[in-house]
Design brief:
alpha/beta, Oxidized Rhodanese, domain 1, 5-stranded parallel sheet, 6 helices, 5 strands, 40% helix
């Protein structure tokens, strides 16, 4: 299997994401797989753009792109204590979105380390 290389981001964007990562909880792909296998209730949200999502996503993921998640999250998840796991391509946008959801009062939010790239590099498939 070909490994996907992480994207190289601009310095300021990477610094912004790292600051958010210092304030949020991150989980590994293995932890996500265990959550999915255990059938415990949680929301899995793909924050990538529609054009990315349409090419494939993790099974059962809800699509709320980073551009709209803050506006629309309450339409989908009204309980601020609900468990929410976010992912994007590499874990940067999802970290930023997780940070904002926490600022909005959601208390059980996590971002997947390495995002979809890590998911695929560990041999997992997409819908």
């Amino acid at each position: 299997m070909t490994q996907l290389a992480p994207k190289v981001h601009s310095t300021r964007f990477a610094e912004l994401a790292q600051t958010a990562k210092n304030r949020i909880r991150e989980i590994t792909v293995q932890e996500l797989k265990e959550k999915l296998a255990s059938n415990q209730p949680f929301y899995l949200i793909d924050v990538r753009e529609e054009s990315e999502f349409s090419k494939g996503y993790i099974a059962n993921a809800l699509h709320l792109s980073k551009g709209i998640i803050e506006r629309d999250i309450e339409k989908h998840i009204s309980n601020p204590a609900a468990e929410i796991v976010l992912y994007c391509s590499g874990g940067y946008r999802s970290a930023l979105a997780a940070d904002n959801l926490q600022k909005m009062g959601y208390i059980n939010v996590a971002s997947v380390v390495g995002g979809l790239t890590a998911w695929l590099n560990e041999g997992n498939s997409l819908n």
